[in-house]
Amino acid sequence: MSVNVEQVSTKNITVAKFGGTSVADYQAMLRCADIIKKNTTNRLVVVSASAGVTNHLVRLSQAGVSSTEREQIITNIADIQFAITKNFTSQENINNEISALLTSLRGFAEQQAKQHTTKNSDEILSFGEQFSSRIFAQVLQTVGVNGHYFDARQVMKTDNLYGKAQVDLTQLAANAKALLLPLLTEQVIVTQGFIGSDQQGNTTTLGRGGSDYSAALLAEAIEASNLSIWTDVVGIFTTDPRITDQARSINEISFGEAAEMATFGAKILHPATLIPAMRQDIPVFVGSSKEPDAGGTRIQREVESNPTYRSIALRREQTLVTVKSPQMLHASGFLAKVFTVLAKHQLSVDLITTSEISVAMTFDNPHGSTQALLTKAVVEELEQLCEVSVEHGLSLIAVIGNKIHGTKGVGSSIFDKVNDFNIRMICHGASNHNLCFLVPEADANQVVERLHATLFTS
Ligand code: ASP
Ligand code: MG
């Protein structure tokens, strides 16, 4: 098929990001290509690795992988990629490119087996997106779109904190405007999410799930008009649909509410994604590449309706720490001391309530169990200052919406229906967008289900 070279203005560009399941196989990629083709403002495409590939690469990057396992992993990855390229009418060039990448990957993996470094890990982790972006550019060509591969490491400049590199926004903006933007008038550029390069040119990664964040940063850097995040669900839901089948997709939501949801555990977007979009005021669309016509969620600064209740988020495995000191009575400086200990151990407090002699707090831990974060050392240090009690097995529920503080009856609408559960540590968030509390882990699903029925379906 001939490729249609259409000129568009760089004034109205959509950055489209496709997640791992959206580029999992050839059929999935074709659906994405169709999305790009149907809307000619889609000029910059950011892809994740095909589903499963990054997990294989993570294993490959670890210490102690035998040469047999190494070869097995590389074969598994090769199988995923070649299963896609075998659908192309002309395969030779792309297969050569994939083979060359596999050889280079094997080199890094062998080096890693000899001497494990985090720098080498990032080289290894970056391959998933390198494969998928090359392949997707060719899928675009197959459907008649002038798609071209672009190496994100040319523009996404970072520090050298391998595995969790921080992006230099000034360099990114300058590079993207100089190297990327001019290409977009005639080409649809396909680049990698998740990866960047440090000042020496070594490959870096932005942290798992970082492709959303890459796409948002690129959208900001080129001052795009829109950012579309294509995933495998039709937008953001009122709550986790695995908890209740009453959950439904939200049409429109403000940046403030969506940021709150991302922080409180809605896993659909990488939590940092909205920051660049908010800075540059770029509306974000979240939809499913499997059902592009089924709608999705639009996230933007102003929305038409601002209901009191928008969604319910649930975060599991919370740890509650209560510190108690009679000294707190009429004393000042106690909290400062407690926070100094926490800051030293890089623990960030999530919810906090205080009474005359005690302070209760939970810890912000989007990446897993707080149990691991709250080490014996931290507890011992706090014990120097006061009595400490630590409780695990709790879940944090956040009711997210608008003017939650200023609306009459919020307390009874939320708590009346769940008053047979042990609800603890009720906190009105500082942002006016949420109200949070803790429940025992075992009750969490039931509480969410019942609240959802009360707040959304009646
Ligand atoms: N491929 C990377 C990961 O699986 C980045 C991403 O998909 O966002 O974490
Ligand atoms: Mg992802």
Poorly predicted ranges: none
Any idea what the shape is?
A: globular
Most strands sheet: 8 strands, mixed
- The gyration radius over C-alpha positions equals 24 Å
User: How many discrete structural domains?
Assistant: 2
> At the first level of CATH, what is the class of the largest domain?
Alpha Beta
The name of the CATH architecture of the largest domain is: 3-Layer(aba) Sandwich
Strand content: 15-25%
Q: Identify every distinct bound molecule in the structure, by name, code or SMILES.
A: aspartic acid, magnesium ion
Helix percentage: 25-40%
Report the oligomer.
single chain
Q: Can you tell me the CATH superfamily of the largest domain?
A: Acetylglutamate kinase-like
Q: Strand arrangement, largest sheet?
A: 3-4-2-1-7-9-10-8
Q: What is the average of the pLDDT values?
A: 92
**Helix-strand makeup class:** alpha/beta
User: Total helix count?
Assistant: 15
Stated plainly, the CATH topology of the largest domain is called Carbamate kinase
Instruction: Please give the alpha-carbon distance between the first and last residues.
Output: 53 Å
Number of strands: 16
